[in-house]
Amino acid sequence: MRKADLHLHTHASSDASFDPEEVFSIAKARGLTALTFSDHDSIASNAAGQRLADIYDVAFLPGVEITSSWGGKPAHVLGFFSNGPLPALEDFLADNIRSVRKQFAMAMLEYLQGQGTAVTIAEYEAEAEAQELSEPTPLYRLLHKKGIASDMATFMALRESSGIRVLHTPLPEAIHACHAAGGIAVLAHPGHDTGVVFTFDEENIAALATAGLNGVEVFHPAHTRDQEQEYARIADRLGLVKTGGSDMHIPRPEPQKMVGGTYCDWDEVLQYLQR
Q: What's the pLDDT tens digit per position in 22-37?
């Protein structure tokens, strides 16, 4: 089997630390045939991936991990683009981020005002207008300037204590966005039971297949062997491609969570892409 790790994060994801070239260097050393950068709601590292593929002789499949929702809970879809994602996907990702950030900020400001904190919507809008899509977020920058959140840890603790949750775009819309950008859509880590994200059974996957889902991430560090076998059976029954990857973000002691530690059959994926 020619191995592919089709779920890797670079520093284009806010919670990841690897430079694109670091990923390729490790992938080459570990004998991978192909890899994908699946950064959260970002395709910023794909250009580097396409350039590095020739240097390291490792095939690169441009990708993204889109934050979405299903059944009232967060869910994720992986987009894969044989010819690179079209600019329309960038617009979709930006709109998705902008919408969620504003919804959360409005709810958070209302919460803070209810706690007697002097912060206004007008102040937030001025901060957002200056740098809406940058990191850290406009809400963090505003609360930091006003001395409400001294650092990111304080801000995150404030977020958690508020209990506010805002759902991203519905999963079928994310699937459509992948198709509109010339790619395929794969359900990410369907069995990753964190108590927060949605855990998928065959009925839900079948519903998404009807909505255009192309595949299932069968192989993932969070899946047990039994789950891998069950999701493989579901994928085969529904005619969906089976993908997999390490979901690597930062250096980890668990080998299955590092580059190439979890993988799928590159030729099977390639065959599906070339249909």
A: 999 999 999 999 999 9
Tell me which CATH homologous superfamily contains domain 3-89+170-273: Metal-dependent hydrolases (3.20.20.140)
3-state secondary structure of 110: helix
Q: DSSP letter at 170?
A: B
Tell me how far the alpha carbon of residue 9 is from its chain's centroid. Answer: 9
pLDDT tens by residue, 159-208 = 888 888 888 899 999 999 999 999 999 999 999 988 778 999 999 999 99
Query: Domain coordinates of the chain in residue numbers?
Result: 3-89+170-273, 92-162
Closest CA to 23 of 32, 64, 15: 32
Number of CB atoms found within 10 A of residue 185's CB: 26
Give the type of residue at 225: R
Residues in the chain: 275
CA dihedral 149, 151, 157, 161 (to 10 degrees): 10
What are the backbone dihedrals phi and psi of residue 41, each rounded to the nearest 5 degrees, phi first?
50, 35
Q: DSSP characters for 203-249?
A: HHHHHHHHTT--EEEEE-TTS-HHHHHHHHHHHHHHT-EEEE---B-
Q: CA angle 60-168-149, nearest 5°? A: 100
